[in-house]
Amino acid sequence: MKEFDVIIVGGGLVGASLALALSGSRHRVALLEAAAPPSGAPSWDERCIALNAASQAIFSALGAWEELAPAAEPIRSTHISERGRFGVARFTAEEAGLPALGYNIPVRQLGTVLWRRAQGTNTTLLCPTRLSRLQLQGDGVELELEGGERLSAKLVVAADGAHSAVRTMLGIGHDSRDYEQSAIVTAVRVSRPHQGCAYERFTPDGPIALLPKPDGACSLVWTVPARQVDGMLACSDEAFLAQAQDTFGERLGRFVTLGRRNAHPLSRVMSERLTVPRVLFAGNAAQSLHPVAAQGFNLGLRDVAAVAEALEAAVDPGAAALLRDYEAARQADRERVSQFTDRLVRSFSNRLPGFSALRHLGLLALDLTPPLKQAVMWQNLGYGHAPRMAREGQP
Fold it and tell me: How far, in Å, CA of 355 to CA of 377, rounded?
């Protein structure tokens, strides 16, 4: 049986980030991933992910940002509005005292860099392989892989997604809310320069967001009712662009070219536990959120920073006191962000008479009330309840 101090189950963006974060530690670390590592070069319509300022600070602390930066488009401002209303909330990097509020980066590029860097460390990468059994012991965890190989660890970090196999094997429940929506993710070329501005426009059916990409293109994330998805994926590019243009408006001029379309069902999945003896949950295995305001991965990356900081001086990485401290440290951030995204989705989908007017007043108040605006901006930058690593470079 191979023995490790820490075994990370799940080598997606969160798991790979944690493997990199622990690579210089005293602990013997293994990373298990079922899929082959990412490969290939990003294309203009590649799916992207928005990193906030705290996430950029974490990747800087991990030594990865210099390699990531060339593919990352700075987000210098945000523009939040509601269709049919003139109220707008705006945030700028200048107000925050930062060079950018965040960065939009291709998911494949991010994954490729993380895996390449993890391969250059003392972390044992087990990929592709699947976990078939997991059993808690008094002083550790015993794992069995498909094929029969057995491993042991003092701590298992479950970073294996919203439908976590580790959570299922341990019989840990979760709270799930189906939003009956899907996100259609693609890219568009537009006729006006985006100037680094990220737009989020709310509609009763769900938000439509455009985020800056290089070469004048924009990532488009359009939340629509689940019943409409098949028709919107099947229609022509011209018809889809016309619908998107009508929903978003002409702040970026005309939508000229459409990329590949993919749809992702949307739900909120919250694990009932963040830790059990010798196991902790991070990223989507702990909480999977609606993509509104691009909070999910950024929250998961703060989980990574918190785990890395907790293990810095740990003799036993799975000690009960360490797990209690991790759960206490992450609970407030987790609750605040998950409730924020959930309330945002439900409030902007509410069609009760008079509710639209209240939302409009709320947007106006947000833009015109400096203390409120500062608090919301600080949270969206990732600085609320953030681990030390995420606050480096904070203005």
Answer: 24
Q: Please, which residues have CB within 8 angstroms of residue 44's CB and are 6 or more apart in sequence?
A: 187, 189, 213, 215, 217, 259
245 φ, ψ to 5°? -60, -45
As beta bridge partners, residue 89 has 80
**Tens digit of pLDDT for each residue in 210-263?**
999 988 899 999 999 999 999 999 999 999 999 999 999 999 999 999 999 999
Q: In DSSP terms, which residues pair with 105 in a beta bridge?
A: 49
Q: Report if pTM > 0.85.
A: yes
| CATH T-level topology, domain 2-175+267-391 | FAD/NAD(P)-binding domain (3.50.50)
Residue with tokens 């899907």: 182
195-232 burial, b at 16+ Cβ within 10 Å, e below that, comes to: ebbbbbbbbebbbbbbbbbeeebbbbbbbbeeeebeeb
Q: Which residues make Cβ contacts (< 8 Å) with residue 312, sequence separation at least 6? A: 25
How many residues make up the chain in this entry? 395
